Amino acid sequence: MILSQDGIFTRAEQGADKYGQAKAREVLELCLGEAQMQKYESGLTDEQLTEKINSIGEEIKEGTNPNISQAIVDGYIFEVDRTVPKILDYIGPADGVIITATVTQNGDWQNPIATVTGVIKTYSGGTITTVSATKGGAKITGFSIDEEGKYTISDVTEDTTIEIKAKDSNNKDNSKTVPITIKIDVTPPTIEEVKATVEQMKIKITAIGHDKNASNQEESGIDYYSYEIVSTEDATLAGIPVSQRTGRFKEEETVTIEATKEATYTIKVTATDKCGNTLDTPKIAVIKTIPIRVTEIKIDKTSVLLEAGNTEKITVTILPSNATNKEVEWVSNKPNIAQISQDGIITAKQARYSYYNCYK
User: What is the structure's pLDDT at 11?
Assistant: First the structure.
């Protein structure tokens, strides 16, 4: 068998590459193993993991998944699962220009703005000589990198595609396409449950819901719940304070209403998210108030002796003290002899006997 010199060199290079890759993997696995131990023994922050990886090589973060990053160790690129942490895959040798890109959004669902950040570096032994970027095919004026190769593209307000290109001094180049989809909240929130309870005449209302889209992703979040009370038994809502017949409340907040009439009430609840999307169909809860009955009426005087023209006040006590209706009506059986006001004040008219009664 005859081997050419080129073939011998190629096999030698392949062998060296495999050896170098294995050594780099071993170094990274040892580093991540130590990070695992720290995580389960005393805790591991995101910053601590980055510091550990950078102590043996260089970590590159990009994409939309913060749990996945790349580590370059001795010129070899590995994909890392930061949650464990562990190596997921071997990407390839770091030979040439590498461009990373991470897209973040400002969190304002009404006026969303995306920002692209990343790093452009070369691993060919040269330096980066030219960089450029386009947005939707149009050149981004002033695009550049700093001394560490970092760049930022700000104020992206619509769906578009960013393309980044770079070349180094050894004439090695690379490009990266970054599709951007601006997240806009157009989905109304969902009410999972309305809890309406009654403690005799006290109505309490709470609600549980979420603001997720069809892909089960959290959107802007519920801003507030709105409620409305209606009733066929109490059509004019005389038993509900005017200020509490409608209202708003926040998540985990309880609305308390002191009703004054025995009736069945329907409570309609809707939800509005932070972008103003409102649930069209309200969630319904039906409750019935139960009045607290009067069990006893006490008066402080059972008889009074008055001269004509004089007055005396009678004080009434209703039991229990939290009775729903504590209104009383005073009546004199002989108003020409003695009159009694609805405040319980007796006024003598003539010098004769008279009786007064208190009615509930």
Answer: 61
Answer yes or no: is pLDDT of 246 > 70: yes
Q: Angle CA(79)–CA(87)–CA(83) in degrees, nearest 5?
A: 90
Q: In what order do the strands lie in the sheet with 128-135?
A: 138-139, 128-135, 160-168, 173-180
Condensed to tens digits (0 to 9), the pLDDT of residues 211-243 reads: 998 888 888 999 999 999 999 999 999 999 999
Which CATH number among 1.10.10, 2.40.300, 1.10.8, 2.60.40 corresponds to the domain 296-359? 2.60.40
Record the tokens describing residue 105, joined without a space: 């959004």
Sign of CA dihedral 60, 63, 65, 68: negative
Q: What is the pLDDT of residues 273-326, one digit of tens each?
A: 999 999 989 999 998 987 777 778 888 887 778 778 888 888 888 777 777 677
The edge-to-edge listing of strands for the beta sheet with 246-249 is 246-249, 222-230, 264-273, 283-288
Evaluate whether the domain defined by 190-288 bears CATH number 2.60.40.10. yes
